[in-house]
Amino acid sequence: MENIFKEIALQYDMEIDKIEVMSDHVHMSVSAPPRIAPSRAIQILKSVSTRLLFKQYKFLKKFYWGGEVWVQGYFIRSVGQGLTKEQVNKYIEEQSEEI
Questions:
Q1: CATH architecture of the domain with range 2-94
Q2: Residue-range domain boundaries for the chain
Q3: What is the pLDDT of residues 52-85, one digit of tens each?
């Protein structure tokens, strides 16, 4: 998943600064140009990754026959006054399931 998201980000002029892929969700720090709204960046990452997953792993269509790999919800927080990119990246690092 990490490679898929990074590939998509490159195609859309975005950059994934930090990413932690867990068994049931993903945390990532993404930088995007001003022309891409935060909600649009998430839409791109979810929709394109779904297409790539179905293309690369055809058996997934049996489990996700409705085409819904990702849930509708997401959380976005921009960095700036009160929250730095470093703080976000530290939080993401701390979310790893590895022991």
A1: 2-Layer Sandwich (3.30)
A2: 2-94
A3: 999 999 898 888 877 788 888 899 988 988 999 9
> Is the confidence at residue 98, as pLDDT, over 70?
no
pLDDT digits (tens, 9 = 90+) for 27-49: 999 999 999 999 999 999 999 99
Catalytic residue among 12, 57, 74, 91: 91
User: Per this entry, what is the length of the chain?
Assistant: 99
Please say whether the beta carbons of 18 and 28 come within 8 A: yes
How far CA 81 is from CA of 23, 74, 77, 84, in Å, comes to 32, 22, 12, 7
For this structure, is 12 an active site residue? no
Global pTM value:
0.84
Among candidate residues 10, 5, 33, 28, the one with its CA nearest the CA of residue 76:
28
Identify whether the C-beta of residue 14 lies closer than 8 Å to the C-beta of residue 89. no
